[in-house]
Amino acid sequence: MTTQTVEAELLELEKRFWQALKDKDANTAMSLTDYPCIVTGAQGVGSIDQKTFATMLKAAPYTLNRFQIKEGAEVRLVRDDVAIVAYKVHEELTVDGKPVTLDAADSSTWVRRDGRWLCASHTEAILGDPYGRDRRG
Predict the structure, then answer these.
(1) Which residues pair with 19 in a beta bridge?
(2) Is residue 133 a part of any domain in this protein?
(3) What total number of domains does the chain contain?
(4) 6 φ, ψ (degrees, to nearest 5)
């Protein structure tokens, strides 16, 4: 398998994960995840086991209505069984009954286990001023 083929496969898996979130398809999202999965974002840092992830997916306080992974994604094959995928994403959600639109920079670390790629870590940073000057206090 060529590096380009692996890169395309990983980008497709990333899109499949997002689509699972949009479709509220917990089984697919969980089948693409390595446990415990490390996540970081605006709420902090966490290590999520399979049971916690299932609960989170079923009780998500938001609906992902639309997503678009932007052109220019970066994929780095660190080893034959470890890769990093990074990209910008546009998200349209409903949160607490209200529409929310945001742009973010995301990255995932994928590991190959038993011939399958699984997401071992995911981060999301909402785009904006790097010092937070564009956010209200």
Answers:
(1) none
(2) no
(3) 1
(4) -65, -45
